[in-house]
Amino acid sequence: MFARADIRPRHRNAGRPPEKSARAYLQWLRGRACLLAPTGECEGKIEACHFDPWGDKGVGTKVSDFAALPMCRRHHEIQTDRLGWPQFQTRYGFEGRAMVTRYWRAWPGRVAWEREHGEVKP
Questions:
Q1: Per the structure, how many domains does the chain have?
Q2: Cα 17 to the chain's mean position, in Å?
Q3: Please, what is the average pLDDT of the chain?
Q4: Within a domain: residue 45?
Q5: Could you tell me which of 13, 14, 107 has the C-alpha nearest to residue 65?
Q6: pLDDT digits over 36-77, tens only?
Q7: In sequence order, what are the beta bridge partners of 50?
Q8: CA trace torsion 48, 54, 55, 58 (10° rounding)
Q9: Which range of residues forms the domain containing residue 98?
Q10: Cβ–Cβ under 8 Å, residues 120 and 104
Q11: What is the sign of the dihedral through the CA atoms of 115, 118, 120 and 121?
Q12: Would the pLDDT of 112 be above 60?
């Protein structure tokens, strides 16, 4: 049978570091049109789709929120479940780093967020 130590609760990971979290930015992104709206293939709600252009993901953690893009449910699913980032960018003809930087710099709350958490250098 199992000893009591064998069925102890799973260890919880530490929360995300504050410099990786920008909830207000994600909310703002969800209010934008899908990055790929011009294709005419969009379906579903807009979601914040995380992209890892600088390799800051880490094991068991999500990439920084400032590296997210607005995508409809359909395109987000194609990216995550079917193609992965390299093939997705090729199929739709865009460069992820440039788009992440463009959206981050367009966010009205960026300057205040960077004053509090440190400047992001995309």
A1: 1
A2: 15
A3: 83
A4: yes
A5: 107
A6: 998 888 999 999 998 876 666 666 667 788 889 999 999 999
A7: 68
A8: -60
A9: 17-116
A10: yes
A11: positive
A12: yes
Question: Is residue 14 a contact partner of residue 56, using CB atoms and an 8 Å limit?
Answer: no
Alpha-carbon torsion 33, 38, 44, 48, what sign? negative
Please compute the mean of the pLDDT values over residues 23-29 and round it to a whole number: 93
Q: Kindly tell me the burial class for residue 106, based on how many C-beta atoms sit within 10 Å of its own C-beta (0-12, 13-18, 19 or more).
A: exposed
Residues near 24 by Cβ (< 8 Å), separated by ≥ 6? Answer: 109, 113
Residue 49 backbone phi and psi in degrees, to 5 = -100, 115
| Residue 107 belongs to some domain of the structure | yes
> pTM value?
0.78
Residue 7 within a domain: no
For residue 79, being part of any structural domain is answered with yes
Distance, CA of 104 to CA of 68 (rounded, Å): 8
Q: Which two tokens stand for residue 113?
A: 């967020």
3-class state of residue 59 by DSSP: coil
Contacts of 52 (CB under 8 A, 6+ apart): 63, 67, 85
Residue type, 24: A
